[in-house]
Amino acid sequence: MLHRDGHRVTLYERFETPRPLGSGLMIQPSGMAVLDGLELAHQVARRGARIDALLGIEEHGRTALDAPYAKLGIDGVFGLGIHRASLFGVLFEAAQAEGLTILTGHEVLSSELCAAGRCLVFADGSRSRPHDLIVDASGWASRIEGGEGQGLLPFGALWASVPVTGDDPHARNLLEQRYRRASQMVGVLPIGSRADDAPQEVAFFWSLPREDHTRWCDTPLDAWKDEVRALWPQADFLLERISTHDDLTFARYAHRTARKAHGERLIRIGDAWHSASPQLGQGANMALLDAWGLALGLREGRTLAEGIRNANLWRRDHVALYQAVTAAFTPLFQSDAALWPWLRDRAMAPLSRLGPVARVQAQLMSGLFGWPLPMLGLDVPDYSAIAASMAARASSPDQS
């Protein structure tokens, strides 16, 4: 976006070869609006899987979460489950096609103001050339200008991307979860395929306290699988495809809002500004909105400083809202508490079936609560066209 507006952009990457980390994620209508504005929505959607609802059931069979996108009242709208590698690939290829300067093998430690702008300071002691603006997109563990990682949450999750076939007994259009109170959660998210000749996959995840990860690594895998089967027997076909501990990656989560979202010749976007647990599936979507807001702010600002202030102003209320809501929701689904899951199952779940409450729940899930799109000149994309594009790929002769 910045390159298209005439800015000279340099991307500094820590890895020698840029690569994604993690497994599956959800692209909500809020994030899809940005991808549509970039003319990448159809390309991304063809790599993903259509998700029509989130369904969570507690250990005794009671529905704890039932959140269909249809409750939004927007024709044809849905979520998109996708492997992080697929989203990364589309965006990275687009950046390469724009001709951006991409410098790999540069681990950033900090930045500092210099005579002609702001410079990055790298782990080897070298410095970048001066830049008019540093955009910190280095995640929740950012160390740039007082952005030290903090706020680690007690719970993380084990993740695996598991190949599936058309005969497997999983819901192809749902993010499904099973809960034992809030201390155990197993989930399955369809995430499409990473390439035309690659199999369909699902993201399998198991909630786990951070302090228990070492113990889990020392526990026989079959003992852990028995624990998962006890909560969700129908997930057995996925467990059979996990053969070693190394097939699963442990993800840590942090709830953190940087003390300063921007400074002189510096602005943070995504998790470098605000990180949270994945309970509402908003991480990638909030980052996309931040990026769009930054480009728009610089475009309309009369000076660099005004452009940065615009970008922050247009995003801060939505960011604060979702930080607060996610903080409130997290103990309901990931905690050792007994009261919160009891309230979730016996009070919140029945209330969410009421029309107005169901609509608010759908707005929260979709990233549209608080009306973030009009502020940025965006609108929900044409989902009927996106669905047709996905169907065309699924019917391609190359697809199994």
Quick structural summary:
By secondary structure, this protein is α+β, with helices and mostly antiparallel strands. It has helices spanning 29-37, 41-45, 84-98, 213-218, 221-231, 236-239, 283-300, 304-333, 339-351, 355-366, 372-375, 383-394, and strands at 10-12, 24-27, 49-51, 53-58, 63-68, 79-83, 101-103, 108-114, 117-122, 134-136, 155-164, 174-180, 184-190, 200-209, 249-251, 256-257, 262-263, 266-268, 274-275.
Question: How would you describe this protein?
Answer:
The chain has 400 residues and is an alpha+beta fold. It has 2 domains: 247 residues, FAD/NAD(P)-binding domain (3-Layer(bba) Sandwich); 97 residues, D-Amino Acid Oxidase, Chain A, domain 2, CATH 3.30.9. It contains 12 helices and 19 strands. The strands form 6 sheets. Strands 5-4-12-13-14-11-15 form a 7-stranded mixed β-sheet. Strands 2-6-3 form a 3-stranded antiparallel β-sheet. β4 and β5 form a beta hairpin. The protein starts with 9 loop residues before the first strand and ends in a 6-residue tail after the last helix.
Task: Please describe the topology of this protein.
Layout: E1 10-12, E2 24-27, H1 29-37, H2 41-45, E3 49-51, E4 53-58, E5 63-68, E6 79-83, H3 84-98, E7 101-103, E8 108-114, E9 117-122, E10 134-136, E11 155-164, E12 174-180, E13 184-190, E14 200-209, H4 213-218, H5 221-231, H6 236-239, E15 249-251, E16 256-257, E17 262-263, E18 266-268, E19 274-275, H7 283-300, H8 304-333, H9 339-351, H10 355-366, H11 372-375, H12 383-394
Helix pairs in contact: 1-7, 7-8
